[in-house]
Amino acid sequence: MTGAPIPRAFVVGHPIAHSRSPLIHGHWLAAHGLPGSYERLDVAPAAFPTFLRALPDSGFRGGNVTIPHKEAAFALADTLTPRAEKIGAVNTLVVGPDGRIGGDNTDAPGFCAHLDHSLGEGWPGRAGGTAVVLGAGGAARAIVVGLAERGLRRILVANRTPARAEGVAALAPGIGAALAWDDLPAALAGAGLLVNTTSLGMRGQPPLDLDLAPLPASAAVADIVYVPLETALLAAARRRGLAAVDGLGMLLHQAVPGFEAWFGPRPTVTPALRAKIVADLAG
Ligand code: NAP
């Protein structure tokens, strides 16, 4: 007699060798004493539609989707959560019992959960509820939707390419607006939260050169770049005595809903898990 198959999930991207997701899910499988596997899959863009269509017969319960497949997963999933639909990108796939492929975007709640954890749940009210978001790529889309869900009163988006900022601000109707980069000092003076979603400050990229002096003393600064963990932006925020929130927590918290959907228990982001990923990043 053969037992039930071991639950399997994946992270798919191209390239994928750098992904820390197998470490995160491997940690939780061990912590819960569960059988299961979480595999890295390198799939080139041209092969992604075939990969996705074959999922129901593959034995996988689902998986995470990363660069460059998040938009393709959005276009190809059979069903979407309202949040994924709004963001226009999918980072979590779940194969349903009927073989249909559901797509979700957990970057938005992952970012907000990390702010809850780091700043306390009252963070959306800081300095009257205004957030300034730098960048207008895929991560910015998720974060603006997440911030709007959490009741921010004003979300200002500044980006190198202004037209993209307008598109992202439109994801928060009534409260979102695009901001010219030159107008940042005035906007920062009224902001309770500054978020960097650009790749500036990431290892190998130019630094983000921004004067934080105008921010109110109650403001918090979040950077979603996590290589390095302590970006120059976060170091500058700490020097000013501001609350500083690093990008690793978003990566850890976005993984929670997927693990629960594929393996059962809702996992916890613990200091031990964080320490494991920090050590891996340092290595
Ligand atoms: P993306 O879609 O490629 O967007 C990149 C953004 O950075 C765009 O707004 C782009 O501006 C801006 N940018 C790039 N180079 C720039 C430069 N030299 N000067 C000014 N702006 C520049 O990337 P993404 O997926 O949103 O990811 C952005 C960053 O977030 C990456 O560092 C990624 O690793 C990180 N991230 C972290 C997490 C996490 O869990 N912590 C999750 C997702 C992403 P233009 O529109 O003008 O090109």
Mind summarizing the main beta sheet? Answer: 6 strands, mixed
Mean pLDDT: 96
The largest sheet has its strands arranged as 2-1-3-5-6-4
Percentage beta strand: 15-25%
Architecture (CATH level 2) name of the largest domain: 3-Layer(aba) Sandwich
Radius of gyration: 19 Å
Q: What are the secondary-structure elements, in order, as H or E?
A: EHEHEHEHEEHEHEHEHEEHEHHH
Helix content: 25-40%
CATH class of the largest domain: Alpha Beta
Structure report:
The chain is an alpha/beta fold. It has 2 domains: 127 residues, Rossmann fold; 142 residues, Rossmann fold, CATH 3.40.50. It is built from 12 helices and 12 strands. The strands form 2 sheets. A 6-stranded mixed sheet has the order 2-1-3-5-6-4. Helix 5 packs across helix 6 and helix 5 packs across helix 10. The longest helix has 13 residues. The mean pLDDT is 96. Bound molecules: NADP nicotinamide-adenine-dinucleotide phosphate. NADP nicotinamide-adenine-dinucleotide phosphate binds next to helix 6 and helix 10.
Helix-strand layout with pairing:
Elements: E1 8-13, H1 21-31, E2 37-42, H2 48-53, E3 60-65, H3 70-76, E4 79-80, H4 82-87, E5 92-95, E6 101-104, H5 107-119, E7 130-134, H6 138-149, E8 154-158, H7 162-169, E9 176-179, H8 184-188, E10 193-196, E11 220-223, H9 232-239, E12 243-245, H10 248-254, H11 256-263, H12 271-282
The protein binds NADP nicotinamide-adenine-dinucleotide phosphate (NAP).
Can you summarize this structure?
The chain has 283 residues and is of the alpha/beta class. The protein has helices spanning 21-31, 48-53, 70-76, 82-87, 107-119, 138-149, 162-169, 184-188, 232-239, 248-254, 256-263, 271-282; strands spanning 8-13, 37-42, 60-65, 79-80, 92-95, 101-104, 130-134, 154-158, 176-179, 193-196, 220-223, 243-245.
